Amino acid sequence: MHFFRALWENKLEADGFSVVDSTNKKILYDKFVIQAKDISTGDQSKYLNYKGILFVIYHKWSVTSIELKKEYVYFDKTGFFDPFGISWEGDLVKQRIADLLPFEYSLK
Asked: Is 0.85 surpassed by the pTM of this model?
């Protein structure tokens, strides 16, 4: 949830995250996040869109890879995301940190 909340706000670096590709090149936010606005309601929607594997690094010591299983993977500002749209591997999965937090959890 922390990663997706930081992603929604475009505050990955401020929250200790960086996203790189398989060559360790930093991926810019607008290269893997698509923003859309509902014409009728004006609500903002965001989606992950990337071909290949992304590596999420948290505070330079924890590395997790994510691979999108769908072309567009929805996520929202609360940290909710389509769980069937992403395949996870790495430190955050092994530690199962997300399973320990209630959905309403907030760092602030």
From this structure: no
Report how far residue 91's alpha carbon sits from residue 56's, in angstroms, rounded to the nearest whole number: 10
Taking only the tens place, the pLDDT of each residue in 3-33 is 999 999 999 999 999 999 999 999 999 999 9
Cα 92 from Cα 78, distance rounded (Å): 19
- Give the distance from CA 60 to its chain's centroid: 16
Positive or negative torsion for Cα 9, 13, 19, 25: positive
Contact criterion met (CB below 8 Å) for 82 and 42: no
Backbone angles phi, psi at 29, to 5 degrees: -50, -50
Tell me the per-residue pLDDT of 34-49, one tens digit each, with 9 for 90 and over.
999 877 887 889 999 9
Spatial separation of the C-alpha atoms in residues 77 and 64, rounded to whole Å: 21
